[in-house]
Specification:
The longest helix is centred in the first third of the chain and has 35 residues. It contains 12 helices and 18 strands. The protein starts with a helix and ends with a strand. The protein is α+β, with helices and mostly antiparallel strands. Helices cover 37% and strands 20% of the residues. A hairpin with a 7-residue loop joins strand 14 and strand 15. The protein has an 8-stranded mixed β-sheet. Strands 5-7-6 form a 3-stranded antiparallel β-sheet. Strands 8-14-15 form a 3-stranded mixed β-sheet, with no helix packed on it. Helix 7 packs across helix 12.
Length: 442
């Protein structure tokens, strides 16, 4: 979340950042009023506590505990104590209201993020690989997958419902091969530490990485404990919480350091992990209903990095380069797009989308989104680092990106490497993972 003090002390800068994102008109005055009221009540409470301490000392020196003077002082103390309790209750309500408001405010875009309010105003940064030229009409991944016996949408719908696919034979093996290949590259070449995590997370974890409350409608909540109690990010206690299927491994991995203070010497920390991911796709009714582009369950290898504030921009470029490496090794044609301010994700300061070319659609489609979140997530999770011994801790900067989305990588491989006879050429780097097979044949 945004820093409350900065938001209140720099309302014009915050309003400008929100306007760039298309979020103008937010009621920052209410935030300022609540913050001022909070400070006033804290000051009053601290003053009363000091007065109570002085009065208690004075009462202790009164020898006659039945005297009129002693009784007056005791009544005065009771009144002070009652007011302190009132202030505590009022403060709790104000802080709850402040938190609720802050949780609705998105991150502010970095200064070098392009202006614009829609994806049409995103800016191409670079292009990688060679666009395949075909002397025949390219088939889409659905037709290719069905002909190769790799995909089964009919049985998937019968067993699981719409927007699911069952991968069989070479499809299942290619998915597993891509997962292993991506992990091997990121671990052995880029130095990431692998994480294999559960796919059930508590609501506090979803809140910590900004999936809640903004994207509640897009998440699969699979259980709700009775007598639900709110828990702050980083709280490891067994309070009753909602439980969710992860929308991305980012939630699992980034929250590993919730509530911790890291040593600056440990940074940057780099993790990668595979998980199945689950999304309701609540806002995509009628979109991409054919094939594997937009499904409720998909597979992904995620990259997560923790760093200091000054290293954020360089770490962002590094993480993006690592995700690009997979596309380069697979020989896929793609482009890197800098998202404009209005197209940024809720928690992102700056994002590059990697978009892979799909010949059958004659367009690029997102295959990875790499984001620098600044201290936005860390502030929610209470993840900090200590710059030096005895120095005050600071919030860490977090970064994440797909390295890559496995299903969409499979789609791109099929479409870009298809041959006129319906076979699909496999890139050399995958041959060892596919039992030596160099192509897929109908």
């Amino acid at each position: 979340m945004l820093d409350l003090r900065y938001t209140v002390d720099h309302p014009d800068e915050v309003a400008q950042g929100l306007t760039r994102r298309g979020e103008g008109g937010r009621d920052l005055d209410q935030l300022a009023e609540l913050s001022a009221s909070r400070r006033a009540k804290i000051t009053e409470s601290e003053t009363l506590r000091a007065e109570r301490n002085v009065a208690s000392d004075a009462m202790a020196r009164v020898s006659d505990k039945k005297s009129e003077e002693f009784q007056k002082q005791r009544e005065a103390l009771r009144s002070v104590g009652a007011r302190i309790k009132e202030l505590e209750s009022e403060l709790k309500e104000i802080e709850s209201a402040l938190s609720a408001l802050l949780l609705t405010l998105p991150n502010l875009p970095a200064d070098d993020v392009p202006d614009g309010l829609s994806e049409e105003q995103n800016v191409e940064v670079r292009v990688g690989g060679t666009r395949p030229e075909m002397a025949f009409a390219p088939r889409d991944h659905v037709d290719l997958g069905l002909a190769l016996g790799m995909m089964d949408f009919e049985r998937a719908a019968r067993v699981h419902g719409s927007r699911f696919v069952v991968l069989r034979g070479a499809g299942a093996r290619l998915t597993r091969a891509l997962m292993q290949f991506m992990l091997d590259v990121h671990i052995d070449r880029h130095g990431y530490s692998e994480v294999w995590s559960p796919v059930l997370v508590k609501s506090s974890a979803m809140l910590g990485t900004s999936q809640l409350p903004k994207f509640a409608d897009d998440a699969f909540r699979i259980a709700q404990e009775p007598h639900h109690a709110e828990a702050s990010p980083g709280d490891s206690s067994e309070q009753a919480q909602d439980v969710y299927l992860v929308p991305t491994a980012e939630v699992c991995i980034t929250n590993l350091h919730a509530g911790e203070i890291l040593d600056a010497a440990e940074l940057p920390k780099a993790y990668c992990g595979y998980t199945p991911c689950f999304r309701r796709e609540a806002g995509s009714y009628g979109k991409d209903t054919r094939g594997m582009i937009r499904v409720h369950q998909f597979d992904k290898v995620e990259l997560v990095r923790f760093c200091t504030e000054q290293d954020g921009p360089a770490e962002f470029e590094r993480l993006t380069e690592h995700a690009e490496t997979i596309l380069k090794l697979l020989g896929l044609h793609y482009r890197v797009m800098a998202l404009c301010a209005g197209d940024l994700g809720f928690q992102s300061r700056k994002t590059y989308d990697l978009e892979v070319w799909l010949p059958a659609q004659n367009r690029y489609r997102e295959i990875s989104s790499c984001s620098w979140c600044g201290d936005f997530q860390a502030r929610r999770m209470k993840c900090r680092y200590r710059p030096a011994p005895k120095e005050k801790p600071r919030f860490a900067h977090t970064l994440n990106g797909s390295g890559l989305a496995i299903g969409r990588t499979l789609v791109a491989l099929l479409e870009q490497n298809q041959q006129a006879d319906g076979s699909v050429r496999l890139p050399e780097v995958l041959w060892p993972y596919m039992g030596g097979a160099r192509s897929l044949v109908p």
